[in-house]
Amino acid sequence: MAEAAIELIGINKSFGAVRANRDINLEIAPGTIHGIIGENGAGKSTLMSILYGFYQADSGEIRVGGKPITIKTPNDAIAVGIGMVHQHFMLVENFTVLENVILGAESEALLKKSIVKARSELQRLEREYGLEVDPDAVIEELPVGLQQRVEILKALYRGAEILILDEPTGVLTPPEADHLFRILKQLKEQGKTIVLITHKLREIMAITDTVSVMRQGTMVATRETAKTTVGELAELMVGRRVLLRVEKGEAKPGAIKLSVKNLTVRDSRGVTMVNDVSFDIRGGEIVGIAGVAGNGQSELIEAISGIRRAVSGSVMLDGKPIDVIGIADPGELRDRGLAHVPEDRHHVGLVLAFEENENSILGYHDDPKYLNGPLLNIDAIRNDARDKIEKYDIRPGDCRLKTANFSGGNQQKIVLAREMEQDPGVLIVGQPTRGVDVGAIEFIHKRLIAMRDQGKAVLLVSVELDEIRSLSDRILVMFDGRVVGERGSDATEGELGLLMAGVERKEAAE
Amino acid sequence: MSTPYTKLPGWADYGLIPIINLIVAFIVAGLVVLLVGENPLHAAAVLVDGAFGSGQNIAYTLFYATNFIFTGLAVAVAFHCGLFNIGGEGQAYIGGLGVALVCLALDGFMPWWLIFPLAILGSAALGALWALIPAYLQAKRGSHIVITTIMFNFIAASVMVYLLVDVLKPAGSMAPQTRDFLPSAQLPKMGWLLEMFGLSVRSAPLNISFLLALVMAFLVWVLIWRTKLGYEIRTMGFSPKAARYAGISETRIIIITMMISGALAGMMALNPIMGDQHRVQLDFVTGAGFVGIAVALMGRSHPAGIVPAAILFGVLYQGGAELAFEMPAISRDMIVIIQGLVILFAGALEHMFRPAIQTLFASISPRSVGVTAAKGEGV
């Protein structure tokens, strides 16, 4: 076999306490399409960012064409023939295709000469690879599929032999995706090496020659695509990681606390993120929403908790409506007993520049127990914060310390303590253990179960399937904005993994 | 307290860095003085003497500082909400109209201690109203507050010219200014304060609005760090997303914050109008609104920093005036250059030396920059 196009040996990368990549070994054969698959947060993007020079590995070696190299900046990567097509395009919207292609690769001081040269080169590339785009079209007027083609052309123009595509179909319609796959096959036939990062099993099966699966920062397996199955990959991807299953008794569901009917939510670009979703949650049960990140879970809980406007549908809290269309006031919802632990604790759930005690009242700062008329009752706030620190074992136990100086797990405990101690009837929890150390995970899980056992309704959104399975009494799976299935807590990982990847729906449709 | 920078011990953050910035500013200013052929050390001595050399000089320094405390606080309050109010100049100018209306209407009927509170209300109310329009446009329409407030400075200047020339000017007078206030609308001087230390202030205009400025500095501290409203303002300033999550209305907070900011800027007018000139003249604000930006930056938006920063700028104004008088080669414009350099280094280039100092601290003592605290365990 020929020398590997890219070889990664023992790559390690940590961000603080989080080990994003550990001991990654990977060999990519030239002239193939190599898929890298894994859940969000598995470390795929980190690995590719190391390869493209956005990050430096803490240790390990990169070889391109057999030669060890160091890649410190994207320019180094381009110099050895690595090109990258980002998930979010790096194009200047009001430039033409041609201007975007030569941006940063202008050969002359004056633009005119570069443009003349680039035009003929671009036309050659377009012919050779079947990537027709009008060189004089302005980017913002092109559909997304063509914009992506410009990204590919940009990489080829810079002499890329190895092309990395990060979640390339995330923004494409199915026909556009099919067209992209034809282009990729053509590139492969011309001898290019392609690395495809995705979490969609269908794409892996449709187009790759080899597939590597990542999970929690490690490379768990590499398979020849022809010799594997969707089921096997789903299982590898989701993992059989043994997580201590939390001790919990039978759920005793009571009355309906939260009822969501036909809820539809669009994001700021107008893309429908939540599509006609309905479900009920009763007191005394935990309902988990599983799904690969970006399938509408975030928008769903934001709409329910009054942070984002819904387009249509209705939500009832304790039998009374929440104004999800006109956007409800989160403060009023708190008064009505709806607590929310947001997914993004750094920017939403906490103000990192605040002292710990200031964050322990965020959202509840209207509560008279923290106030003396218009003044804050500093003593009451700090005593209250100290009580929570003790009860939730938040470390270090200093309520005057700046929140940014707490670890991820302790920051999350600050949020949980604040929301749970208000004794809400309904608790919405987003990614409760993201970036949280193992010790704190168990603690947080026990707290959530305890909430349930007190008769509260808990809505849990997590991309951690283990977490969903071990905590939930019922599991809803979201894919592409819809609830595609409901399972009990006894659902297998493979079964949920397939639902999460949208496989069942796709196959049923075909 | 709520600075977003967590990496340095407090004394370095609030003491060392501003002092280094100031020293660099003075070194560069010294080079400029050298260029015009004067001795920088001598110039520095003249400047310090001009600011502190006599009771009168000190009183003038504090008189100017009073203006800058008000405008510095105005800018700082808006900063805490993430808003950059550069309209202090216009808000103070219009605030002067509030002072004038109260004084002109009441100076024949009431003693100063009744007129003063009303004039405070008048100046604050008009300053706040002048800030309300940009605030509303920002909150409801997304018009950028920097653009609108600076535009409102020009509008304020034109409005005041019109009023002083066509409306408030007494008949028969040639000067575009109001009539002089009667003594009952003049604020008591504060010479006694310095005379207690055996200093003579002669005719220096230091007056009790200096005390009002200090009271306001304290109240701003209470507002920002001790009230529910201040908590909401800071939440909005640090993270609008967190504010949304906490149920804090962005529109409401922006409007209230800007009105408080405008009110503080408006109160600045009390000092020159009621305390010194006893009438409203054209351009009585003389750039204090803009100096307030530098004062707020240098004082890190904290009243305890703003008061000394305002006094520093008072020194530059008063000492600079003496300097221009004593050393003819150094013109009034040179003083503006020196002030500009201080603003440049203490304000705009505030963080220039921070990385180097952080590295230095980290190499001397890792603990002091919070390396161990970040772990969260073992404390």
TrEMBL record, chain A:
<keyword id="KW-0067">ATP-binding</keyword>
<keyword id="KW-0547">Nucleotide-binding</keyword>
<protein>
    <submittedName>
        <fullName>ABC transporter ATP-binding protein</fullName>
    </submittedName>
</protein>
<dbReference type="InterPro" id="IPR027417">
    <property type="entry name" value="P-loop_NTPase"/>
</dbReference>
<dbReference type="InterPro" id="IPR003439">
    <property type="entry name" value="ABC_transporter-like_ATP-bd"/>
</dbReference>
<keyword id="KW-0762">Sugar transport</keyword>
<keyword id="KW-0677">Repeat</keyword>
<dbReference type="InterPro" id="IPR017871">
    <property type="entry name" value="ABC_transporter-like_CS"/>
</dbReference>
<dbReference type="GO" id="GO:0016887">
    <property type="term" value="F:ATP hydrolysis activity"/>
</dbReference>
<comment type="similarity">
    <text>Belongs to the ABC transporter superfamily.</text>
</comment>
<feature type="domain" description="ABC transporter">
    <location>
        <begin position="6"/>
        <end position="241"/>
    </location>
</feature>
<keyword id="KW-1278">Translocase</keyword>
<feature type="domain" description="ABC transporter">
    <location>
        <begin position="258"/>
        <end position="505"/>
    </location>
</feature>
<keyword id="KW-0472">Membrane</keyword>
<keyword id="KW-1003">Cell membrane</keyword>
<keyword id="KW-0813">Transport</keyword>
<dbReference type="GO" id="GO:0005886">
    <property type="term" value="C:plasma membrane"/>
</dbReference>
<dbReference type="Pfam" id="PF00005">
    <property type="entry name" value="ABC_tran"/>
</dbReference>
<dbReference type="GO" id="GO:0005524">
    <property type="term" value="F:ATP binding"/>
</dbReference>
<dbReference type="InterPro" id="IPR003593">
    <property type="entry name" value="AAA+_ATPase"/>
</dbReference>
<dbReference type="InterPro" id="IPR050107">
    <property type="entry name" value="ABC_carbohydrate_import_ATPase"/>
</dbReference>
TrEMBL record, chain B:
<dbReference type="GO" id="GO:0005886">
    <property type="term" value="C:plasma membrane"/>
</dbReference>
<feature type="transmembrane region" description="Helical">
    <location>
        <begin position="280"/>
        <end position="299"/>
    </location>
</feature>
<feature type="transmembrane region" description="Helical">
    <location>
        <begin position="306"/>
        <end position="324"/>
    </location>
</feature>
<feature type="transmembrane region" description="Helical">
    <location>
        <begin position="330"/>
        <end position="349"/>
    </location>
</feature>
<feature type="transmembrane region" description="Helical">
    <location>
        <begin position="115"/>
        <end position="133"/>
    </location>
</feature>
<dbReference type="GO" id="GO:0022857">
    <property type="term" value="F:transmembrane transporter activity"/>
</dbReference>
<feature type="transmembrane region" description="Helical">
    <location>
        <begin position="57"/>
        <end position="79"/>
    </location>
</feature>
<dbReference type="Pfam" id="PF02653">
    <property type="entry name" value="BPD_transp_2"/>
</dbReference>
<keyword id="KW-0812">Transmembrane</keyword>
<keyword id="KW-1133">Transmembrane helix</keyword>
<feature type="transmembrane region" description="Helical">
    <location>
        <begin position="145"/>
        <end position="165"/>
    </location>
</feature>
<feature type="transmembrane region" description="Helical">
    <location>
        <begin position="204"/>
        <end position="224"/>
    </location>
</feature>
<feature type="transmembrane region" description="Helical">
    <location>
        <begin position="12"/>
        <end position="37"/>
    </location>
</feature>
<keyword id="KW-0472">Membrane</keyword>
<dbReference type="InterPro" id="IPR001851">
    <property type="entry name" value="ABC_transp_permease"/>
</dbReference>
<protein>
    <submittedName>
        <fullName>ABC transporter permease</fullName>
    </submittedName>
</protein>
<feature type="transmembrane region" description="Helical">
    <location>
        <begin position="253"/>
        <end position="274"/>
    </location>
</feature>
<keyword id="KW-1003">Cell membrane</keyword>
